[in-house]
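One thing: could you explain this record?
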Amino acid sequence: MNPQKIKFDYNNPYVQKILPDFLENTRIKVKNILHQLLQLKDQPRNLELIQEIFRTVHSVKGAAGFIKFQIFSDVAHRLEDLLVRLKSQELQAIPPVVDLLLDAAAVLERYILQLERHEEIQNENSVLLEKMSEEKLLQFKQLKIGESIHSGISVLQVSGSLRQSNSEELIGRVRHLIEAGKLNVLLDFQSIDSISSYGIRTLLNILKELKKHQGDLGLLNVRPQIFNIIKITRLENTLLVFERVEDFLQHLAKTKN
């Protein structure tokens, strides 16, 4: 589908007055953003660089507001939102995420070029913002994993969305427990909002690894939508769900007898 064309009001006296300065300053800043994002690919944990990019994006978003260039502002706003998530480490600057940011910055650059030529603007926002939607970003969200001990049982509090892109984080934490001799593990899923088929396979692999070391796995505080997935895949007798830590302890006692 061809992008929708938007007529920009080049004849507005106010726009005519401020457009040259906007173009000169914003062109340089967007080129800097593109350059800094390429640096970020090589330095994905550089929070100072992420903060610097954020400040520049915030600046160009504000400048676009003065000339009422809404589609430019919308892209800059989405860029800003993703950079906030990188700063908070809700997302990590892995290559697919940085590529999304580069795509957005490249759209801004094309918008500036069309303004410089006094052309109709090819509105690319629909396709771009769909690629940057919450649903698409779920695959890149990091897991947050806390750990506590209850009655001798290791409980991992897992939050986020369990998918292929982050499953190694959970596997790694369980391996550390196994190495420490903590072989009976409960995964507290109270804050897990979704799980992919790969996530289900990850749980099965964790269970297999624990069983190999004479340990066991249980799931705690599983939301109905997650439990339905377990039932649909007919794994409710394999991936066991418990309401309380005490129930898991009773299960372990029975399996030892």
